[in-house]
Please model this.
Amino acid sequence: MKRIALITLLSLFALLSFDGNAQIKYKYRSAIFKKPQNYDAQVIAVGTAGTKYFFVSAQGKSLEKAIINAQYNAIHACIFKSIPGTSNADAVPALYDAPEPRIEDAKFFDDFFSPKKGICLNFIANRSILKPENKDVVYMGGGVYSLKMKVQVNYDDLKKYLEDNGKIKAFAADLKGVAKPKMIIFPSDDWCKNLGYTDKYGNVDYEKALADNNLRDMIAAFEGFMSKAGFEMNNLRQEINDYKSAEAYDFAEEYGNEKASSMKDILESTVRADMRVEFDYRLKNEAGKQYVEFNIGVYDAATNKSLFSNVARGTAVSGNAQMVNQLKEAILNIQDHFLLQINEKFAVMAKEGREIIVVCDRFASCETTFNSNFDGDKLSSLIRDYIESEVVKGTSFSTDQTSANKLKFSQVHIPLFKEKKNKRTGAVTSTAQYAKDFGDGLADYITEITGQPCRVEPRGVGKVFITMGYDVTAGED
Model:
């Protein structure tokens, strides 16, 4: 009887142990996982070549052991803690998406932090000269030392190592193949106007602004930072040179009033940027020293809606602050949080689609109106049905205006990318969807129904006008 009971207990134990829904706990051997981590960590600054400086506290049964523990704590903080920032450096979000290793990652991190293997210490810069200042060391008694010291971490290398080993996602890894957003960088309009970089009508003149050497250097520094992170960048000065043509200006001035496009609209339309970065800067003083503060904003190029903004600054220095160097330092200080925000916003855009505005109107000479009937349906209703069939599923759009002469639809969410079939070869390709592409499709649909030609006029990447009929003033038949 006892034997049967023992077998039953063993069987039950085995069943519980190997239940497919039960997780087998992994016993961490590395000391850093054995007790709650009560150390403090704070960002001091961002260094060159992908490094970050932290103040980290630690304890140890000797001074040497406490110094080593501070290095372990610095790496642990980068991976598992969100590290608070200072006025000079932005906070650093945790690289890993949980406060401790998940079961499936336990063995990897156990080995990573193992004192025998010392893998994590490979990401500490200048280990041979690490030493706390005397004022930051306290002897606690019983052979235990407590200290706070500055530790430099090869942060970018650490991040890449975790990405390569599948422990964290690389940028936009959750976007299922969607490319990173295309970016273009502008100085802010308010900054340009305050400095008099305007034309005779009071509009921003980016050519005048780009005569400012500091501005050109700062844009180049920002573009370098973004390009290194893998973004496709469009240089503002080059784009102005490429598209500063009679055709471009005719496009901006020909239609007037609501349809007129600014230089920013033209450039964003031609480069088809997804997001626009704008920044401005101002000189400030702190305790008799000068520093540069930057406002950096990111906007949806289609809607001009602000996606997010950051304030960054350089280190206060005596004499005139070197603006370019301060910008580089400021960018380094916010780069991780900045890229994380771009990733999050573009992930939303990939899911919900690009938001555009569609305006349909007609030339006065066009006999067809939007109230005209085709097979028992008003043209306006057919156009609404077309838009509804093309927007991202689960999204809605607004009808802002409906009349015989004009239709206006806003918050039209179209896919970032759309499969397109070549009529001749049958090949299927993926094309980026912007307002003009959408307008071309709608114009073809209107022409097919009504027999009327349509003129498609984009404004930037987020607004398109479709004008039905012939423009008799242009001498069209």
Notes: Residues 4-26, 172-177, 251-258 have pLDDT under 50 and may be disordered.
